[in-house]
Design goal:
This protein has 17 helices and no strands. The chain is an all-alpha fold. Mean pLDDT is 94; it is low at 1-14.
């Protein structure tokens, strides 16, 4: 009788390999969440990357971008500064820090960073755009045509380096409008729209310029187009209301100011404008209530309106 042969094989029992997430993987995950506007989750992921690799300049820079997008400009500046401490002379990071400084009204610091970025890499069109935007904002506040002219030069350079940016055409159009170059401004807004027909600001800004040229029908069409793209576009709603006001259609103006206030109940401009229309319709009590609300929100001209109509 044959015996059965029993084969005893060796069985290897090992420990499973555990994957350890790297700093780069956390950064990549953070970038994905940032692009989805999941700012809190992205911030945590960048923090994990920094914990693993405290000398990772990309982690600090990208967390700065995330915090900028979340409106945390001071924290963004701190992150950009850490990134630059690790990797001095990074033109893109200098530009990013300048943009955050711009948002905080730190014009001198922003210009300093933009200048440094351009010195390092004069081929970065975005830096000329950002510096031009800063110069435009400064010139707009004090009406300084020299600053506006400098802004125009930067924006021309930005377009030379990248002619496909609707944002640059929009801001250059705004600069030209301030300089009184209205037809040229119209051309820039139109070029921007040809690049991105869904950019609502371009329609609003072109409408303002058409209004300057007393082309009210074209202005109305553009405000309407902007509002169609975004029914809650408070600026365009208020501007359209003011266009109706100027044409003497005060009831239609009030309807638009009402919509503006529904969208943004803190709009001092809308309260002031609605009050002005209500004065025209003889509703002094409502008008004065609106003028006082405009004053509450620190709207220029509100006290003058109160003094003229509510005493």
């Amino acid at each position: 009788m044959k015996k059965a042969i029993l084969f005893l094989g060796l069985i290897y029992i090992g420990t499973s390999c555990k994957h350890h997430t790297t700093a780069l993987e956390y950064i990549t995950q953070g970038d994905t969440e940032r692009k989805l506007n999941h700012y809190s989750k992205a911030d945590s992921l960048y923090g994990l990357a920094i914990n693993l690799d405290p000398k990772n300049d990309i982690a600090y820079n990208n967390r700065g971008l995330n915090r900028f997008n979340a409106g945390k400009y001071a924290e963004a500046i701190d992150d950009y500064s850490m990134s630059l401490k690790i990797k001095p002379g990074d033109a893109t990071c200098l530009d990013n820090r300048g943009a955050a400084e711009h948002e905080l009204g730190q014009a001198r610091e922003a210009i300093r960073d933009y200048n440094a970025a351009i010195t390092i890499d004069p081929s970065l069109g975005i830096v000329y755009y950002d510096r031009g935007l800063q110069e435009y904002d400064m010139g707009k506040v004090d009406g300084d045509t020299n600053k506006l002219t400098i802004a125009l030069q930067d924006l021309n350079k930005a377009i030379e380096l990248n002619s496909k940016s609707e944002n640059v055409y929009d801001v250059r159009g705004l600069v030209k409008r301030r300089l009184g170059k209205l037809e040229d401004a119209i051309q820039d807004f139109t070029q921007g729209i040809s690049i991105n027909p869904n950019f609502k600001n371009l329609y609003n800004d072109r409408a303002l310029t058409y209004s300057d040229l007393n082309n009210n029908e074209a202005a109305k069409a553009d405000y309407t187009a902007a509002i169609k793209l975004d029914p809650n576009f408070a600026t365009a709603l208020d501007n359209l209301g003011w266009l109706y006001y100027l044409s003497g259609d005060y009831q239609e103006a009030i309807k638009n100011f009402n919509k503006t206030i529904e969208v943004d109940s803190t709009s001092g401009q809308a309260y002031l404008d609605r009050g002005s229309a209500e004065i025209k319709t003889g509703d002094k009590d409502k008008a004065c209530a609106d003028f006082y609300k405009a004053k509450k929100y620190n709207m220029n001209g509100s006290q003058e309106a109160i003094d003229a109509n509510c005493k």
